[in-house]
């Protein structure tokens, strides 16, 4: 029997994850009091395989009852019942934006400041996060990308290294993405924008890509960047970082930054890292350019 405990920060996407898990055959229960975990697990064990994949959502909506979670997980171990913990989180800025858009109240900030409720929740959840089997930061994941992560872990059985690498191409004239951990300026590369045949193309087009990649400065830069990331990523993972956001910027975010980001995306995917890419400014008409 597979027993999965889903918890994490309110607003980080637990409801979406439940839907995805139900689609792949998990029996899901939302907001279960921790004291009932063992009893529920025992009932499922007695079903003799009829219920063999269980996901239980347990979070601070349970109020004081949530305090029983860690002791109950310890009791499961003592009883010989195996389980895994999936912890979902997101940045403060993203959580605030989501709450404002949904107009929902945070469980710990019904009558107070939202940011204080978020910080209080992080403190309450710090111990369970530290010992979680999987930690997924949903700050920069679309629903489709989150679903792919869930399928990769629980269907395909891919190795989970604890970190998602996000690559964001952008234009400096539209501002640096606030969520970036690392920012690289590629405006030193000659700009295809000033070549008539390339002006209206993007870095995903072959002509632009070949132009950008045709300079020694570009190949030297990519070599150094790859070497640096090969050093940084394993060390970030070792320190428990769950998401690395890499920003690559040029003037308008359509040509050079896109081509470089695509090259970096291919390289990191080849290293079997979990990578998503977003060309934020490639087209300002609102169409999605995320992978």
TrEMBL record:
ATP binds at residues 8-15. Transmembrane segments: none annotated. Signal peptide: none annotated. Keywords: ATP-binding, GTP-binding, Nucleotide-binding. InterPro entries: P-loop_NTPase (IPR027417), RapZ-like (IPR005337), RapZ-like_N (IPR053930), RapZ_C (IPR053931). Gene3D superfamilies: P-loop containing nucleotide triphosphate hydrolases. GTP binds at residues 59-62. Pfam families: PapZ_C, RapZ-like_N. Residues 163-283 form the RapZ C-terminal domain. It comes from the Bacteria. Residues 1-154 form the RapZ-like N-terminal domain. One of its GO terms (molecular function) is ATP binding. PANTHER family: RNASE ADAPTER PROTEIN RAPZ. HAMAP family: RapZ_like. This is RNase adapter RapZ.
